[in-house]
Specification:
By secondary structure, the chain is mainly beta. The protein contains three helices and 16 strands.
Length: 227
């Protein structure tokens, strides 16, 4: 799954946007494409935000028509495609509907980051796989036993497995051999500088790098590169 951002749209604007699967499907073609939209509360608004009669497939891209919407509302648009080689891919895009700003004196800037954190968790819970995150805590050194006491805390969560796209020296896209796990920060401890591992089925992964996405100082998701 790949997540992108379609930018801002005013309520009265109507135009085409696009999901491009070119780097995913290679020489295959798109056989079917299904696009749905939900608002920030998770309600299905496909029929009002999109016009299905104008949707079309152009090679490796799916073009879709956006319209209407409620002012000051964030929408999540999901596109699922099946290819001629029987592969399935999903892309997700965020569209924010907001009219032109009012005079500066009347503007009150307030962002509810907890709401955005909830939205990220809903998306990861929907598209992710069940896995366990085990937090490893190392405590006081015991000189007699010549060891540190330790404890583990297990968090049941869901994560989206990503295969990062790399660009070589020729400017060509290719898949990395690394594994990246996308985790929702909600209900997890702060992972920036702690020891933990991820258990996924029979796999046990230790992080090589953990990068938090925290606009406004609130962590929304974690990108965890594992080995």
């Amino acid at each position: 799954m790949t997540t992108g951002y379609f930018g801002n749209k005013q309520v009265a604007e109507e135009y085409y946007e696009q999901f491009d699967f070119g780097s995913d499907i290679g020489s295959a073609t798109i056989a079917t494409a299904v696009i749905v939209a939900v608002d920030e509360n998770g309600a299905d608004v496909t029929a009002t935000l999109l016009d299905a009669t104008k949707q079309n497939v152009d090679g490796s891209a799916v073009n879709f028509w956006v319209q209407a919407g409620t002012n000051d509302t964030e929408y999540t648009i999901t596109c699922d495609v099946d290819t001629s080689s029987h592969e399935h891919y999903t892309k997700v895009g965020i569209l924010y509907v907001i009219n032109d700003p009012v005079a500066e004196a009347a503007v009150v800037i307030s962002t509810d980051w907890s709401k955005k954190q909830d939205m990220a968790k809903r998306m990861i819970d929907k598209y992710g796989d069940a896995m366990s995150l085990i937090l490893e805590t190392h405590n006081t050194y015991n000189a007699t036993a010549d060891s540190y006491s330790s404890a583990e805390t297990t968090y049941s969560t869901r994560g989206v497995l990503l295969n990062p796209t790399m660009i070589n020296e020729a400017g060509q896209y290719s898949k990395s051999n690394k594994i990246r796990v996308l985790l929702s920060a909600k209900n997890l401890p702060v992972l920036d500088n702690v020891d933990f591992r991820i258990e996924y089925g029979s796999e046990v992964w230790h992080p090589e790098k953990t990068v938090p996405l925290k606009p406004g100082g609130t962590t929304i998701i974690y990108f965890v590169d594992v080995k």
